[in-house]
């Protein structure tokens, strides 16, 4: 049940001359927080934008700039520094440095390291839009892609020069996501997975509704990790406070009925269906056209039962592998076992609703034909990775 998703890695982080170098400080902080170790190598130009002292303090390792640095015993820093690295990431990667990489130049420590490496190379381009769009840069990028270099970005947006366009370096969180994706084993490559997430809101009138306190965090974590594992993810989501991850296809469905329609519309060629959205079991029989005004002492609202999305998907003539979630407040495992039986699904994930809803962490038990597996409390991304690793073993 161990997942390689959250293993710490040793990264060599190259920093070249560009204003985006200030974002690299935050990237190092995020990488260290995730348990990775970071060795920084800067070009001389990079030191004009951010100091080696700053990056040394954040990484906890000495920063190297010069090929002739005497701190490396055998005067071969390009070999000594690159060999222990699991990957090299150059962020920001300037247009000049990209040109060096494409043509195999080795005229400073960082370019020599990249040429002498035995590990994967990832680059995060950063330059103004004219430099990015220049045919020579585009040719160089094309060459790097042919050479199996991984490209992270660039992004489009407002640039330091005041122009707007392609060429911005990705934000540190997106770079972290790119690194995690790179290191995640592609267990679900070629699989199509539909995930529902978040809460539905059943409208009583134009401004009020019946909902629940689901944040969407667990569903979004599953969508993010499944994407990192190489799956084509379709996300049908309701209301959520969490930030929606980048997936292949995303659709908003605010009510139980809208979610039912959206799932049924996209379920046809899916290999897996993960129903984690907190869908309302009931909705108002009538939704008022105008705001209901305060009048009587009490107000009675008639509710009708909503369709059961998971049960109906499981009943399809050729159903995908169905995974359900049971968020219970008491007799958690008992209710989850019953739910798995009633809906006739192969796998259910049981959790304590009052601890899981809205929280960053979760503690779950996986129940399938082969037994019950309790996962210890962890952040929702780690839990997602373990659920999906288990799913992979079941699919095979």
Automatic annotation (TrEMBL):
This is Coenzyme A biosynthesis bifunctional protein CoaBC. Coiled coil: none annotated. NCBIfam families: coaBC_dfp (TIGR00521). Its EC number is 4.1.1.36, 6.3.2.5. Catalyzes two steps in the biosynthesis of coenzyme A. In the first step cysteine is conjugated to 4'-phosphopantothenate to form 4-phosphopantothenoylcysteine, in the latter compound is decarboxylated to form 4'-phosphopantotheine. Catalyzes two sequential steps in the biosynthesis of coenzyme A. In the first step cysteine is conjugated to 4'-phosphopantothenate to form 4-phosphopantothenoylcysteine. In the second step the latter compound is decarboxylated to form 4'-phosphopantotheine. Residues 193-396 are annotated as: Phosphopantothenate--cysteine ligase. The gene is coaBC. It catalyses: N-[(R)-4-phosphopantothenoyl]-L-cysteine + H(+) = (R)-4'-phosphopantetheine + CO2; (R)-4'-phosphopantothenate + L-cysteine + CTP = N-[(R)-4-phosphopantothenoyl]-L-cysteine + CMP + diphosphate + H(+). The active site is at residue 161.
């Amino acid at each position: 049940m161990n997942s390689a998703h959250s293993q710490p890695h040793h990264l060599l982080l190259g920093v070249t001359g560009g204003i985006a170098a200030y974002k690299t400080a935050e990237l190092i902080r995020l990488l260290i927080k995730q348990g990775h170790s970071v060795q920084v190598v800067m070009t001389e130009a990079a030191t004009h934008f951010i100091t080696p002292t700053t990056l040394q303090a954040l990484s906890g390792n000495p920063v190297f700039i010069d090929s002739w640095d005497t701190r490396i015993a055998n005067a071969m820093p390009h070999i000594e520094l690159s060999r222990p690295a699991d990957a090299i990431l150059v962020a920001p990667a300037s247009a000049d440095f990209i040109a060096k990489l494409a043509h195999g130049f080795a005229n400073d420590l960082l370019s020599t390291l990249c040429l002498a490496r035995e590990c994967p190379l990832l680059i995060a381009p950063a330059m103004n839009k004219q430099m990015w769009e220049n045919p020579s840069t585009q040719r160089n990028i094309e060459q790097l892609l042919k050479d199996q270099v991984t490209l992270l970005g660039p992004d489009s947006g407002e640039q330091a020069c005041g122009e707007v366009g392609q060429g911005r370096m990705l934000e540190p969180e997106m770079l972290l996501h790119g690194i995690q994706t790179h290191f995640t084993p592609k267990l679900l490559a070629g699989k199509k997975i539909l995930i529902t997430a978040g809460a539905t809101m059943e409208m009583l009138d134009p401004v009020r509704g019946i909902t629940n306190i689901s944040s969407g965090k667990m569903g979004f974590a599953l969508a993010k990790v499944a994407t990192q594992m190489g799956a084509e993810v379709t996300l049908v989501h309701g209301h959520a406070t969490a930030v929606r991850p980048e997936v292949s296809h995303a659709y908003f469905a605010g009510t139980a009925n809208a979610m039912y329609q959206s799932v049924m519309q996209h379920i046809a060629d899916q290999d897996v269906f993960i129903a984690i959205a907190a869908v309302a079991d009931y909705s108002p029989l009538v939704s008022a056209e105008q705001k209901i005004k305060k009048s009587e002492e009490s107000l009675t609202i008639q509710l009708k039962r909503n369709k059961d999305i998971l049960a109906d998907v499981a009943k399809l003539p050729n159903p995908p592998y169905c995974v359900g979630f049971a968020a219970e407040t008491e007799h958690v495992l008992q209710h989850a076992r019953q739910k798995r039986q009633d809906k006739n699904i192969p796998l259910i994930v049981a959790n304590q609703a009052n601890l899981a809803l809205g929280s960053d962490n979760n503690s779950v038990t996986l129940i399938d034909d082969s037994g019950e597996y309790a996962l210890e409390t962890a952040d929702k991304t780690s839990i997602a990775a373990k659920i999906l690793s288990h799913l992979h073993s079941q699919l095979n």
